Every structure is written in C-alpha cells, then in structure tokens.
Amino acid sequence: xxxxxxEKKLFELSGYYPAVVVTGPRQSGKTTLCQMAFPDKxxxxxxxxxxxxxxxNDPRGFLAEYADGAIIDEVQNxxxxxxxxxxxxxxxxxxxRFILTGSQHFGLxxxxxxxxAGRCGILVLLPPSLEELRSFQNxxxxxxSILWQGSYPRIYDQNIPAQQWLADYTATYVQRDVxxxxxxxDLQTFSGFLKLCSGRTAQEINLSAIxxxxxxxxxxxxxxxxxxxxxxxxxxxxxxxxxxRKQIVKAPKLHFFDSGLACYLxxxxxxxxxxxxxxRGAIFESWVISEIFKATVHGGxxxxxxxxxxxxxxxxxxxxxxxxGLDAVEVKSGATVSENFFKNLESFSDRLxxxxxxxxxxxxxxxxxxxxxKRSKAQVLSWRDVHKLAL
Length: 391
Fold this sequence. Notes:
Helix content is about 40%, strand content about 15%. By secondary structure, it is of the alpha/beta class.
C-alpha cells in the first residue's frame, strides 16, 4: 500500500490523546493506514457479527480484552461502546492507546461528541490525492484517465477495472450504507437522485429544482444531500461572505469528492468520452477543489475554501482563505492558456480594493495543460501541480 500524508498527523495526535479517530468514506484506506502506522497494536474489526455482538452486549469484557489498547475498526457499528471507552480512558489516560476508525461520519461524530469530547483527536482520510496516487506503479499519467478512474485505492492496488469497482461500490453504498443512516423506502428514486447530483457537480445547489427533477420534496433533497455529505460522497462549497458592496449569490456549490464516481454515475465509459463530454469542465473543477480539500484535511487542517459569484455574473471558482489574504483560483479544463482565463481574476481583485476590509489577493489559474507558468496577471498552474495551491 502507498504511503499516506495523513500518517504524520496521526502519529502527532496519538502523542497527545488517549484515542484518535480516523473517519472518511468507505474504501479510502483507513484500515490500511492505521495498521501500517501501528503494526504492533492489536487489531479488531466490528464488521464481523460475532465481534460486534461481543462489543455491543459485553462492552466492559470487550475492552478488557484490549486493555493495552488496539485499533478498533468500523467503530460506528457499536456506538454505545464509546461510552464505556470513556470510562476506560479516564482510568488510563496515556496517549495513543486506541485508534478508532469509522465510515459514517454523522453517527460517529454524534457518539464522539457525547462520549469522547476532549479525549480524542479526529482526522479525516479521503481517497488518495494526486501526489499520493503517483506512488501506485499503475497510476495513469493522463489527465482524463485520472479523472475518469478516480482515486479510490483498491482500483489501483488490486488492478480492478474502474467501472466494475465503482459499480459495485455504488450498489453497496445505496443498498447498505444509506439504509443505515436513514429509512429510504424507494432505493430506485434515491439512485436516480444520486445520478442527478453527479450531473450537477460544480453547480450551485437549488433544492427545489433538484426535488422537481427527482420527484421528491425539497426537504427530502436536503436530507438526502446531508446523507451524501456525511458519507463523504459530496461536499458543499460555501459562498464567500465578504464586505464587498455587491449583490452576492449565497448558495453553496455541490462538488463530488471523487471524479471517477461522478463519471461512472454519468455513464461516461472511457476517458476519450470524458474529453468530449459537456460536463468535462465541471468534473475538472470538482477534481481540483477536491485535491485542495484533500491536501488540507490530510494535513490535519480544516479547509477554509469558498466560491464567489455576483448576481450579475462575476464568478470565481475557488477562494482559499489564507492567514495573510485570499487565493483566488480559476479552473479551466482547456490545455491552452487563454487571455479569457484571467478576466474574472482581475475584476475580483478590483472588487476587493473597494471592500471595507482590504484583503491581499494572490491570483491563480489551474488548467488542463502540462506547463506551469508565472505570468503578470496570475500564476498559471498545470493540473500536475495542483497540490502547490495548498502550500
């Protein structure tokens, strides 16, 4: 298995807290990371029904089996165990005893906030970033192949065809994981909703419009989007709230974390088809923003990222809030740099000059070409260098 950036932060937090929780989507590599980082720790998975039953029905006996600590995998399957773990940790609070993993963030975070608040560090592991993916010998070196395959590690580690693995992953997610979070009577309608969302990646969220297209109420859409978000399938990019004296759109944007999953749901069957697809730019935009998100959370930092759009048209795909100002980023899937790439960045910089609070702005363009360039109007980054935005 490939090295993961999050390992450094995992070691750091295990030196502070009696427990560290690693959460994230299924199949993102949580178990492998924890076992690689702590090879001498006992390992137990609550996926197995007999072990789960032991943890649920005899939690004190279960924890006594692992008095010296352990990696406890899929801990969301026995949420009440965390209440007993609290007492165990309070009695023996030495750092790094327990490493917990879980896939369903909502149920897990609720249990943690009730039982382990102040006693654990919390980290998020997403599928590998581009930099991590390059450690796989079979990782493609072509942008559209990378976008189409996505970055779930098992596709590369086990040489499973991307479309096959993503089909199985989607079926498992809808049939099993979704039902564990909320009671959905019509899985076919939810599957249609999931596919509809893939067609709206990199678009602002309109609950009523999505509900109309899906055939459900906007309240149901709100609930289902929360399921996708807490399961790390999508994330919502909030609008920038600033002191600019303009009418600003306040709707968040929907972005898929994994471009390969979005391609599968859209029925894109090969990279060449993606190259010609009308949503090519949207998928590339979501991929770039996901890469920034990954680079940030894998460093143990909560992302401070936004989008910006005025009601009269000026739009910036990504705003990164830094300690000393803002990074304004335009994302273009084209392989040739055009003067049009810089137009909105210049206008946005002018807007901030008239703001009540002045923000220094660094301007970037991430594009589908291979050459990074320093231009007077902006720093132009090849898709290969997207990680440099998170530095």
